[in-house]
Amino acid sequence: MRIDIITVLPELLQSPLNYSILKRAQDKNLVEIVVHNLRDYSLDKHRKVDDYPFGGEAGMVMKIEPVDRVITQLKSEREYDEVIFTTPDGEQFDQPMANQLSMAGNLIILCGHYKGIDYRIREHFITKEVTIGDYVLTGGELAAAIMCDAIVRLIPGAIGDEQSALSDSFQDNLLAPPVYTRPAEYKGWRVPDVLLSGHQRKIDEWKHEQSLERTRRLRPDLLK
Ligand code: ADE
Questions:
Q1: The whole model's pTM is what?
Q2: Of 66, 84, 142, 156, which is most buried, counting CB atoms within 10 Å of its CB?
Q3: Between these two residues, 145 and 173, which has the higher pLDDT value?
Protein backbone atom coordinates (compact mmCIF):
# COMPACT_ATOMS: atom_id res chain seq x y z
CA MET A 1 0.00 0.00 0.00
CA ARG A 2 1.10 3.56 -0.67
CA ILE A 3 -0.33 6.75 0.85
CA ASP A 4 0.58 10.13 -0.67
CA ILE A 5 -0.22 13.08 1.58
CA ILE A 6 -0.33 16.57 0.08
CA THR A 7 0.09 19.43 2.55
CA VAL A 8 1.38 22.96 3.03
CA LEU A 9 2.81 21.92 6.43
CA PRO A 10 4.84 18.71 5.95
CA GLU A 11 6.62 19.28 9.30
CA LEU A 12 3.32 18.79 11.12
CA LEU A 13 3.15 15.19 9.86
CA GLN A 14 6.71 14.06 10.58
CA SER A 15 6.34 12.97 14.18
CA PRO A 16 2.91 11.28 13.99
CA LEU A 17 3.93 9.23 10.95
CA ASN A 18 7.38 8.12 12.14
CA TYR A 19 6.97 6.37 15.48
CA SER A 20 5.54 3.15 16.79
CA ILE A 21 3.38 1.04 14.49
CA LEU A 22 3.46 3.52 11.61
CA LYS A 23 7.24 3.48 11.63
CA ARG A 24 7.41 -0.30 11.92
CA ALA A 25 4.94 -0.80 9.06
CA GLN A 26 7.04 1.47 6.83
CA ASP A 27 10.30 -0.24 7.86
CA LYS A 28 8.71 -3.59 6.97
CA ASN A 29 7.60 -2.17 3.57
CA LEU A 30 3.96 -2.88 4.38
CA VAL A 31 3.16 0.72 3.53
CA GLU A 32 4.97 3.62 1.91
CA ILE A 33 3.86 7.03 3.15
CA VAL A 34 5.09 9.95 1.03
CA VAL A 35 4.50 13.54 2.13
CA HIS A 36 4.44 16.19 -0.61
CA ASN A 37 4.91 19.89 0.08
CA LEU A 38 2.27 21.65 -2.03
CA ARG A 39 4.56 24.68 -2.33
CA ASP A 40 6.96 22.57 -4.43
CA TYR A 41 4.22 22.52 -7.09
CA SER A 42 3.53 26.25 -7.10
CA LEU A 43 4.43 28.08 -10.32
CA ASP A 44 4.75 31.32 -8.40
CA LYS A 45 8.25 32.62 -7.56
CA HIS A 46 7.10 33.16 -3.96
CA ARG A 47 5.79 29.56 -3.88
CA LYS A 48 2.30 30.89 -3.22
CA VAL A 49 -0.45 28.29 -2.90
CA ASP A 50 -3.34 30.49 -1.72
CA ASP A 51 -5.15 33.59 -2.91
CA TYR A 52 -8.01 35.92 -2.05
CA PRO A 53 -11.53 34.52 -2.52
CA PHE A 54 -13.75 35.80 -5.32
CA GLY A 55 -16.76 37.59 -3.89
CA GLY A 56 -14.75 39.11 -1.05
CA GLU A 57 -15.05 36.85 1.98
CA ALA A 58 -12.56 36.80 4.85
CA GLY A 59 -9.63 34.37 4.72
CA MET A 60 -7.51 32.83 1.97
CA VAL A 61 -8.37 30.02 -0.42
CA MET A 62 -6.10 27.20 -1.63
CA LYS A 63 -5.40 27.63 -5.36
CA ILE A 64 -6.25 24.98 -7.93
CA GLU A 65 -3.08 24.97 -10.10
CA PRO A 66 -0.55 23.49 -7.59
CA VAL A 67 -3.09 20.86 -6.50
CA ASP A 68 -3.76 19.92 -10.14
CA ARG A 69 -0.02 19.62 -10.82
CA VAL A 70 0.75 17.31 -7.89
CA ILE A 71 -2.33 15.10 -8.31
CA THR A 72 -1.88 14.83 -12.08
CA GLN A 73 1.75 13.86 -11.62
CA LEU A 74 0.95 11.20 -9.00
CA LYS A 75 -1.87 9.77 -11.14
CA SER A 76 0.51 9.49 -14.10
CA GLU A 77 2.77 7.26 -11.97
CA ARG A 78 0.17 4.83 -10.54
CA GLU A 79 -3.55 4.25 -10.10
CA TYR A 80 -5.26 5.48 -6.96
CA ASP A 81 -8.26 3.95 -5.21
CA GLU A 82 -9.30 7.26 -3.68
CA VAL A 83 -8.29 10.91 -3.68
CA ILE A 84 -9.35 11.97 -0.19
CA PHE A 85 -9.87 15.53 1.07
CA THR A 86 -9.91 16.20 4.82
CA THR A 87 -12.67 18.65 5.67
CA PRO A 88 -15.14 19.21 8.52
CA ASP A 89 -18.06 18.88 6.08
CA GLY A 90 -17.01 15.42 4.85
CA GLU A 91 -18.25 11.91 5.59
CA GLN A 92 -17.54 10.72 9.16
CA PHE A 93 -14.33 8.67 9.48
CA ASP A 94 -14.99 5.54 11.55
CA GLN A 95 -13.76 1.96 11.97
CA PRO A 96 -15.68 0.55 8.96
CA MET A 97 -14.15 3.28 6.75
CA ALA A 98 -10.68 2.52 8.18
CA ASN A 99 -11.20 -1.19 7.44
CA GLN A 100 -12.25 -0.44 3.89
CA LEU A 101 -9.37 1.98 3.21
CA SER A 102 -6.83 -0.48 4.69
CA MET A 103 -7.60 -2.77 1.75
CA ALA A 104 -6.76 -0.08 -0.84
CA GLY A 105 -3.63 -0.23 -2.98
CA ASN A 106 -2.89 3.49 -3.24
CA LEU A 107 -4.44 6.54 -1.61
CA ILE A 108 -3.96 10.28 -1.93
CA ILE A 109 -4.90 12.48 1.04
CA LEU A 110 -5.10 16.22 0.37
CA CYS A 111 -4.98 18.21 3.60
CA GLY A 112 -7.29 21.20 3.59
CA HIS A 113 -6.07 24.56 4.85
CA TYR A 114 -6.90 28.27 5.03
CA LYS A 115 -10.54 29.21 4.68
CA GLY A 116 -11.05 26.43 2.22
CA ILE A 117 -9.95 25.22 -1.17
CA ASP A 118 -11.10 26.30 -4.61
CA TYR A 119 -14.30 24.30 -4.98
CA ARG A 120 -13.29 23.08 -8.45
CA ILE A 121 -10.63 20.91 -6.75
CA ARG A 122 -13.37 19.14 -4.83
CA GLU A 123 -15.52 18.79 -7.94
CA HIS A 124 -12.85 17.50 -10.31
CA PHE A 125 -10.10 15.74 -8.32
CA ILE A 126 -11.52 14.56 -5.01
CA THR A 127 -13.33 11.20 -4.80
CA LYS A 128 -13.96 11.11 -1.04
CA GLU A 129 -14.38 13.91 1.52
CA VAL A 130 -13.71 12.87 5.10
CA THR A 131 -14.10 14.46 8.55
CA ILE A 132 -12.67 12.99 11.75
CA GLY A 133 -15.37 14.65 13.90
CA ASP A 134 -17.67 17.59 14.44
CA TYR A 135 -15.05 20.17 15.37
CA VAL A 136 -12.88 22.45 13.29
CA LEU A 137 -9.12 21.93 13.12
CA THR A 138 -6.65 24.51 11.82
CA GLY A 139 -5.74 22.20 8.97
CA GLY A 140 -6.29 18.69 7.69
CA GLU A 141 -2.82 17.38 8.69
CA LEU A 142 -3.82 16.04 12.09
CA ALA A 143 -6.89 14.45 10.52
CA ALA A 144 -4.68 12.81 7.86
CA ALA A 145 -2.30 11.52 10.56
CA ILE A 146 -5.21 10.02 12.51
CA MET A 147 -6.58 8.35 9.40
CA CYS A 148 -3.14 6.93 8.49
CA ASP A 149 -2.70 5.54 12.00
CA ALA A 150 -6.12 3.87 12.03
CA ILE A 151 -5.67 2.49 8.49
CA VAL A 152 -2.06 1.28 8.69
CA ARG A 153 -2.47 -0.69 11.94
CA LEU A 154 -5.06 -2.83 10.12
CA ILE A 155 -2.65 -3.95 7.39
CA PRO A 156 -1.79 -7.61 8.11
CA GLY A 157 1.64 -7.78 9.76
CA ALA A 158 1.60 -4.17 11.02
CA ILE A 159 0.73 -5.25 14.54
CA GLY A 160 2.84 -8.01 16.10
CA ASP A 161 -0.07 -10.07 17.33
CA GLU A 162 -2.55 -10.01 14.46
CA GLN A 163 -5.36 -10.90 16.83
CA SER A 164 -4.99 -7.61 18.60
CA ALA A 165 -6.32 -5.42 15.77
CA LEU A 166 -9.33 -7.71 15.46
CA SER A 167 -10.06 -7.44 19.19
CA ASP A 168 -9.99 -3.62 19.17
CA SER A 169 -13.00 -1.69 20.33
CA PHE A 170 -15.48 -1.09 17.46
CA GLN A 171 -14.30 -4.04 15.33
CA ASP A 172 -17.50 -5.89 16.23
CA ASN A 173 -19.39 -2.72 17.22
CA LEU A 174 -18.57 -3.48 20.87
CA LEU A 175 -16.20 -1.67 23.19
CA ALA A 176 -13.22 -3.76 24.30
CA PRO A 177 -13.32 -5.37 27.79
CA PRO A 178 -11.02 -4.08 30.57
CA VAL A 179 -7.47 -5.46 30.66
CA TYR A 180 -5.11 -5.87 33.63
CA THR A 181 -1.51 -6.85 34.28
CA ARG A 182 0.65 -7.68 37.28
CA PRO A 183 0.52 -7.20 40.22
CA ALA A 184 -2.75 -9.10 40.82
CA GLU A 185 -3.34 -6.90 43.85
CA TYR A 186 -2.21 -3.31 44.29
CA LYS A 187 -3.12 -1.17 47.34
CA GLY A 188 -5.93 -3.66 47.99
CA TRP A 189 -7.36 -3.26 44.44
CA ARG A 190 -7.73 -6.74 43.02
CA VAL A 191 -7.82 -7.95 39.43
CA PRO A 192 -11.12 -9.83 38.77
CA ASP A 193 -10.68 -13.43 40.04
CA VAL A 194 -11.89 -15.00 36.80
CA LEU A 195 -8.86 -13.66 34.92
CA LEU A 196 -6.55 -15.47 37.33
CA SER A 197 -8.56 -18.71 37.20
CA GLY A 198 -6.86 -20.19 34.13
CA HIS A 199 -10.32 -21.28 32.91
CA GLN A 200 -10.27 -20.02 29.29
CA ARG A 201 -13.98 -20.53 28.49
CA LYS A 202 -15.02 -18.63 31.62
CA ILE A 203 -12.50 -15.89 30.81
CA ASP A 204 -13.88 -15.51 27.27
CA GLU A 205 -17.46 -15.38 28.62
CA TRP A 206 -16.46 -12.76 31.17
CA LYS A 207 -14.77 -10.63 28.48
CA HIS A 208 -17.82 -10.80 26.25
CA GLU A 209 -20.16 -9.85 29.12
CA GLN A 210 -17.90 -6.94 30.02
CA SER A 211 -17.88 -5.76 26.40
CA LEU A 212 -21.66 -5.84 26.25
CA GLU A 213 -22.07 -4.13 29.62
CA ARG A 214 -19.59 -1.35 28.78
CA THR A 215 -21.14 -0.80 25.35
CA ARG A 216 -24.69 -0.62 26.82
CA ARG A 217 -23.56 1.82 29.48
CA LEU A 218 -21.10 4.00 27.53
CA ARG A 219 -22.11 3.71 23.85
CA PRO A 220 -25.69 2.40 23.54
CA ASP A 221 -25.78 3.92 20.03
CA LEU A 222 -23.41 1.16 18.84
CA LEU A 223 -25.94 -1.56 19.67
CA LYS A 224 -28.71 -0.11 17.44
N1 ADE B 1 -10.03 20.02 8.73
C2 ADE B 1 -10.49 20.89 9.66
N3 ADE B 1 -11.30 20.28 10.53
C4 ADE B 1 -11.35 18.97 10.16
C5 ADE B 1 -12.01 17.82 10.67
N6 ADE B 1 -12.81 17.88 11.74
N7 ADE B 1 -11.83 16.65 10.04
C8 ADE B 1 -11.05 16.58 8.95
N9 ADE B 1 -10.40 17.63 8.42
C10 ADE B 1 -10.55 18.81 9.02
A1: 0.94
A2: 84
A3: 145
